[in-house]
Design goal:
Blueprint lengths: L1 E8 L7 H9 L8 E7 L2 E7 L12 E2 L5 E9 L2 H10 L9 H12 L9 E9 L4 E6 L8 E4 L3 E5 L17 H10 L12 E3 L4 E6 L2 E6 L14 H18 L7 E4 L4 H11 L8 E7 L7 H10 L3 E7 L1 H15 L8 H12 L4 E3 L4 H5 L3 H12 L4 H12 L10 H11 L4 H9 L4 H7 L11 H7 L7 H28 L3 E3 L5 H9 L13 H7 L5 H4 L10 H6 L3 H7 L2 H7 L4 H12 L6 H17 L1
Parallel strand pairs: 13-14, 13-16, 14-15, 16-17
Antiparallel strand pairs: 1-3, 1-9, 2-3, 4-5, 5-6, 6-7, 7-11, 8-9, 8-10, 11-12
Helix pairs in contact: 2-3, 5-18, 5-19, 8-9, 8-25, 9-17, 11-14, 13-14, 23-24
Length: 623
């Protein structure tokens, strides 16, 4: 895995390589093994390398033999050997064993059409010297990041936002609409960034820059169009396992040590099971994180899978003190406010794993493909709830709001209150309200000035207009894959793993597997109350039944409890009335009311308070 960056001056002024070097060195953690530069007049490209395949000869930037095309590439192309063989038949002679060179020549021969057959995770930029054109592309789900900053004078790009801060012309101006979106989503959704002037290239899109201006186009969308004929159930289960097995096998290609994140849940356990088929003679290295609070801990399930497949298992416990110790570093590598608190165990797990291996496989993407979250069934219930008379809703609301607060993982009172919190919104939007911290009505009270802000949920409506299916579940899946997967789950994994110089691969996001699962009818994924129905049925002959059929836990941490105890002083200091008033962004009375209710046990404001803390950690770091 790597970090890429570049500068193009629109006035043809030569690039100052010392500035490019400063930008590139902010990305050292993404690629500690090597650095490279290519400067030609008004263009400069830079690269940081984490060596995974062809350790000796994959240096970047890399140019074609005739010097016309030059690439900087971050990612892995898992089908590069097939593409390489096809290109060799067309007369291409390769000098390395790297996927970078294959990608470079695929573009040289086919142009943007090469994107259609790339199976992997990537963000890359290719300079065409003859046409004076920069071509940029990002993988279908945005597993690899790409930020760009466009001004009248220059176009600058990088793998991470922090890279722009060292450019002498960059001004750190807060994008208030992006901030409002952060408090709605718990992350800053694409194409926004937290700084004015900087944007993210959306997943599944390419960008072409020529003569000082650029255009952006989509090259792929989630293939949710349904066949009129329902596929055979038994054949579908068999094909699913075949494709998952193939996807896992492709991701085992590496010239460095490799392992797997093992939570003990269905997704990571299935990856271990598939790996076991291809790792005969060697024990798979597995890694997990546990918690002292038992309702959040999955250690026993991880150990069960480890024993079942005889893995070399490594385990570590996350304590509140350890969390406080690593928080400052998390704020530094996240670049933008990010309030999914599973970033904390993910980073600790990545650090821990990197001590033994350089590459790890994980289960990211399964929940968004197979309708694995509890919210998918909750959405069904909400449609029924909306038909209830007003009096019944009032009575139910009174009862639920007076349930005693529990800080156990997914406690009944938390689920009931969250359900009512979003149930009256329209279908897909309520899913985002359930996921986020502050809906727009609450933001109007939270922000000192909110009159210029637009409802952040308008972005969801805009993206949903492109959904090719009219089915209710399909549209929710489309939302999760376009928003939560790309800008939360994959951002979390990328930043946490890259901060530890670890590459993480996601078999469930293999192109062939995604295409197949997307073509399945909705009732194959959610049947009654059973989420991930076909995946569970397909895996029940492979995994222990207590793994397949246990309730989803997720990678949560007991933040609500910690905020009342070990993190209480930290909370009161960071969100003190004096500081909130001095910053001038939030209403001090609203913030203090939430803190008081949480500490007194009258409400569980863990999501809201953690998002406010996250913003202030980020703000302190970037100031």
């Amino acid at each position: 895995m790597c970090g890429i960056s570049g500068i193009i001056h629109k006035n043809n002024q030569p690039v100052n390589q010392s500035i490019l070097e400063k930008i590139n060195r902010t990305l050292t953690h993404r690629g500690p093994d090597d650095e490279g530069y290519f400067c030609e007049g008004h263009l400069g490209l830079a690269h940081r390398r984490l060596s995974i395949i062809d350790l000796s000869s994959g240096h970047q930037p890399m140019s074609t033999s005739n010097g016309r095309y030059t690439i900087v590439f971050n990612g892995e192309i898992y089908n590069f050997l097939e593409i390489r063989a096809e290109l060799q038949k067309k007369g291409i002679s390769f000098q390395t064993r790297s996927d970078t060179e294959v990608l470079l020549y695929a573009y040289a021969l086919e142009g943007k059409k090469c994107l259609d057959r790339l199976n992997g995770m990537f963000a890359f930029a290719i300079w065409d010297k003859d046409e004076k054109t920069l071509f940029v592309a990002r993988d279908r789900f945005g597993k690899k990041p790409f930020y760009y900053w466009d001004t009248p004078a220059h176009f600058v790009f990088a793998s991470e936002l922090k890279a722009f801060l060292v450019h002498p012309d960059f001004k750190k101006e807060l994008n208030h609409q992006a901030l409002a979106s952060f408090f709605q989503y718990d992350y800053v959704p694409s194409p926004l960034s937290i700084f004015k002037g900087v944007q993210k290239l959306p997943a599944g899109h390419f960008l072409i820059l020529k003569n000082g201006s650029f255009s952006i186009q989509s090259y792929w969308d989630i293939p949710l169009k349904q066949s009129k004929i329902s596929p055979d159930w038994e054949e579908s289960k068999k094909k699913l396992i075949v494709l998952l097995d193939e996807a896992t096998q492709k991701r085992l290609v590496s010239d460095v040590p490799l392992g797997v994140f093992l939570s003990g849940g269905l997704d990571s356990s299935s990856i271990v099971a598939m790996m076991a088929r291809h790792c005969e003679g060697s024990r798979i290295k597995t890694f997990s994180i546990g918690f002292e609070e038992k309702s959040f801990d999955e250690s026993e399930h991880a150990l069960l899978i480890s024993k079942t497949f005889n893995t070399d298992h490594h385990h570590q416990v996350l304590t509140p003190n350890k969390m406080l110790e690593i928080l400052p570093h998390i704020a530094s590598f996240m670049d933008e406010p990010f309030a999914d608190y599973s970033i904390i165990p993910t980073y600790l797990l990545s650090q821990f794993t990197r001590q033994k291996v350089t590459v790890a496989l994980g289960g990211d993407g399964s929940d968004e493909l197979f309708a694995g979250y509890p919210t998918f069934y909750a959405d069904k219930l909400a449609r029924i709830y909306q038909k209830f008379p007003h009096f019944f809703k009032q009575t139910l609301g009174f009862f639920v709001n007076h349930l005693p607060v529990s800080h156990r993982d997914m406690s009944f009172d938390f689920k009931a209150k969250q359900f009512l919190y979003g149930a009256n919104f329209e279908s897909v939007l309520r899913n985002q309200v359930w996921l986020g911290s502050f809906h727009f009505g609450e933001q109007k009270k939270l922000f000192v000035e909110s009159t210029q802000l637009k409802d952040p949920l308008l972005l969801v409506k805009e993206v949903l207009n492109r959904c090719p299916s009219s089915d209710a579940l399909d549209r929710i899946l489309y939302f999760y894959q376009k928003f939560y997967l790309t800008d939360d789950i994959l951002v979390k994994t990328d930043r946490a793993s890259m901060a530890a110089s670890l590459e993480v691969r996601a078999p469930y996001l293999d192109l062939n597997l995604v295409s197949f699962v997307s073509s399945l009818p909705p009732h194959f994924k959610l049947k009654g109350r059973v989420t991930k129905y076909i995946l569970k049925e397909a895996l029940k002959e492979i995994l222990p039944s207590q793994i397949v059929f246990r309730k989803k836990k997720g990678f949560g941490i007991p933040v609500g409890l910690w905020l009342k105890n070990e993190l209480k002083n930290h909370l009161l200091e960071i969100l003190s009335p004096e500081r909130i008033k001095r910053d001038g962004i939030f209403n001090p009375a609203v913030v203090q009311s939430m803190i008081k209710e949480h500490l007194e046990g009258r409400a569980n404001h863990r999501k809201k308070l953690f998002s406010l803390l996250t913003f202030h950690w980020w703000k302190d770091n970037f100031n």
